[in-house]
Amino acid sequence: MTKDTSKTLPAHHACSLSPQDIVDLFKITFDQELYRDEQQILSDSIQNVKAELYNRNYAAAFDSTTKRTAYCCRWSPSRAIAYASLFSHLEGVREVIQKGTDSEVLCIGGGAGGELVSIVSMFAPSIDFTAKYSTVQRETTAKNLRINLVDIADWSLEIQRITKTMDKAWLFDHSSDVQIKFINQNILKMGPEDLRLPSMNLITLLFTTNELFLAEKAASIRFFQKLSQECSSGCLLLIVESAGSYSHITVGTKKFPIQFLIDTLLLGKRGQESQGAWDLIQEHDSLWYRGKDEIDYPLKVENMRFFYRLYRKK
Ligand SMILES: C[S@@+](CC[C@H](N)C(=O)[O-])C[C@H]1O[C@@H](n2cnc3c(N)ncnc32)[C@H](O)[C@@H]1O
């Protein structure tokens, strides 16, 4: 296991498109809401979503198109630039996105587009755009990336809008190299034929694990057991949550950091870690992402402090 000693992630990691490119993608996609006559509706919806998230009323935070779009405008850009830096920083994750010839990713709770945009912001620069037009025969292998976004809230419209902009602005005639599928389901209730866990090279649970455990503790534990039974050897699992007490959960009468419970489920009980189905390959308890002040976006771009755990299936 590599103990990550960085304190802060770079504002821009060279292997992804720049943070400004990323926020520009949101500016183009949500132009109507951000710059035109829908600005007042947007600012009211942002306040609504903020209040619901603060009170941990997660279902209510995402129960209408205006609220979901507000989240995409206000929070997804910050998440996407931070995730682009984090995914680039994690070698295994970077390889799945940029080097795999046929990779498949599952983003649980990824309906708001942050994960999607960051992944494509890394995939796009890895495409050889000249290959199709070159007169010289080259040994290039076509790359294919399948991204599955599973979310209990219906983000299909927002994902459609983001995908359309990514095709036009980033992927051009390579848009079919990335297949994006949005699945509007409760991850805890999905059957194996929909989940297709054995096909996945990377699974992400970003700011979603806590929500799962708060809503359905026993079903969440069963879900992690299912990951251990069904994921293929080599599959990566990335978990990100807020650093600090916001991510503590109560079991019985005790409160403790959620990562302790996840480690127990995936690695095995303390002292018997070698018996678990996964290896912990990289982790950090409190890492910062700070964006550059000069970034041009009409709404606040948040900094992020989080813990992460990257596991690999044995
Ligand atoms: C706090 S948001 C985080 C969104 C995104 N991952 C990010 O980092 O910006 C949590 C997401 O998980 C989704 N979610 C919560 N419970 C879920 C479940 N049981 N199945 C699928 N998605 C779920 C919510 O609808 C929401 O989109």
From TrEMBL:
A GO CC term attached to the entry: cytoplasm
What GO biological process term is on the record, naming one? rRNA base methylation
Superkingdom field: Eukaryota
Query: Listed GO molecular functions?
Result: rRNA (uridine-N3-)-methyltransferase activity
Put simply, this protein is called LADA_0C11540g1_1
